[in-house]
Amino acid sequence: MRACIQQRFHQLPHTRFSFLHPPRIHAYTVANVENPSAPSREDYAYANVFLWNTMIRKQAENGDITRDPPLLYYIQGLRTGLRPNGQTFMYLLKALVCGKNVNEGEEVHASVVRTGFASSEFVSGALLGFYVANGFILQARQVFDEMPQPGLVLWTLMIRAYVCLTLPGEALELFRTMRRVGVMPDMVAMATVVSASGLLGDLGVAKTIHCFIEKSGVEVDAFVSSTLINTYGECGSLTDAYRFFQETAMKNTVVWNTMIHQSLEHNNLDLGKQLFDSMPERDVASWNSMIRGFANVGQYEEALALFHDMEISVFRPNTLTLLSTLSACASHGALEAGAWIHSYVNNNDLNRDGSLDSSLIDMYSKCGDIAKAIQIFEESPRRDLFTWTSIICGLAIHGHGKKALCYFSEMNESQVSPDEVTMVGVLSACAHAGLIEQGRRYFQSMEKVFGLAPKIEHYGCMVDLLGRMGCLKEAYDLIMGMPMEANEIIWGSFLSACRVYNNVKLGEVAARRLLELDPRDPWGRVMLSNIYAEEAKYDRSMGLRKESKEKGLKKSPGCSSIEVNGSVHGFLVEDNSHPCYNEINSMLEKIEKLMN
């Protein structure tokens, strides 16, 4: 590594480092300043180190370290006789974190030890942060353990490192060690420890930590309060989270938002709405939590209504708001509302960087306007993984398989690597277009070419494709060879294919597996009954229907929806619950008379 750095150094113009030479330093430090006495050697050394550190710091701030690697500046400074100080190493490590240069970081670590700065808590903290940022927790722990008497800051950094790398057990064990050696935590340390107990998901541990906070006298600020609420929620106890929320005196907007978020995460929409309505002060995050919460549980109409309420309030929707609202429109099939939001985005110049394009493409695709989705994609300045995936999946669900695969080829040519969701879209496109050879090839290429292990969704797409094309034996073998258990969707898809191709033997196998997975679902019995009927095995068909009737099993009624004036109205079979039921029936009767 050092040889590579030195080779790179010799390729650079010598004048780039000329600021380090004493004849130049006088101009930098005392120009335009009246000073009859010449600067001393100490003045030169101090000024040189200051400029040296400044150059390294600028590299860290700019974030572009490929052209001028910070270690080059460091090595040249050493060659000119400069001695690094603590700030030199802190700036250098910060710059190297930006570039993920682990080997160079280890070079700096060796210099820290050689120059005697390993005992500096600030330098050790920077080293620890460098290793954690690159995922080297063992090296970070070694830096920590080599400190003779680490202070509270370093203890907190190490505990937080374990939390950031999702190692809550190690974080809590280190906290116990910290208490045994007599180091008293502050509120920052306690918030980190509380987060660790939340990651662990152990309610008993969370309550123990909470009890320690109360007994120790550690100040409970808004940060600790919100972390405790989150922790109780992550441990599955909304009751304890709400009890603490009611008891704590620290209730700023962040704490209120945290309690609302946990209420919605636990699907307690009533409590979330109650808290939202009673908030003394709201912010954009409050609105976003409510809109996202209602959208996540399928109450898209309420989510859209909240968006419209927000739009007329003093708060302006941001990107997160629009992402949640467009998702609600897509899931609800609310094309008119989605188009209105698109217009709102354009009128307020909220999509200048194209960050909303993938959500807009997804919304238009799921709401039935694939032509508009294609238009947005073609005009998008942002051709990233998400926009490519959105258009490929959108075309797939509309049955435009060949066009979806053309876009996938363009995506590969653009050197954008697909992810698991992209491959679901690709395999789905093959299924809808009946492209069995391409489907097999893309499925096999997932691991070989793209390094993606097929998940259950990809197996489901392949079973669907093989079933549609009548390759039932191959589909069955694929199911039996899956590395995971097939779910209801896969067996249901296979059963549907068995019915289409009247394969009673495999249909019976699929129906039996479906009944094992969900004995109360009548769909498998109905499908198998239809297969028997088509094969003139009426006794078996009637036996299944009788069994379903005796057990009180009923198919879920079909549902249709229509969007009128921005509102989506849903109708079930034999449903008379709509508030305009009588008017609708009256109009249908008039239409029927006109048609006759």
Structure characteristics:
single chain, 596 residues, mainly alpha, 69% helix, disordered N terminus
Descriptive notes:
With about 600 residues, this protein is mostly helical. Helix content is about 70%, strand content about 0%. The chain has helices at about 1-10, 20-30, 40-60, 70-80, 85-100, 100-115, 120-135, 135-145, 150-165, 170-180, 185-200, 205-215, 220-235, 240-245, 255-265, 270-280, 285-295, 300-310, 320-330, 335-345, 355-365, 370-380, 385-395, 400-415, 420-435, 435-450, 455-470, 470-480, 490-500, 505-515, 525-535, 540-550, 580-595, and strands spanning about 560-565, 565-570. Strands 1-2 form a two-stranded antiparallel sheet. Helix 14 (about 240-245) runs antiparallel to helix 15, helix 15 (about 255-265) runs parallel beside helix 17 and helix 30 (about 505-515) packs antiparallel against helix 31. The longest helix is centred in the first third of the chain and has 22 residues, at about 40-60. It is globular, with a radius of gyration of 32 Å. The model is unreliable at about 1-45 (pLDDT under 50).
> What's the alpha carbon Rg, rounded to whole Å?
32 Å
Report on the biggest sheet: 2 strands, antiparallel
Structural class from helices and strands? mainly alpha
Beta content: under 5%
State the shape: globular
Spatial strand order of the main sheet: 1-2
Give the N-to-C terminal Cα separation.
87 Å
**Helicity, as a percent range:** 55-70%
How many DSSP helices?
33
Mean pLDDT: 81
Total strand segments: 2
Q: List low-confidence stretches.
A: 1-46
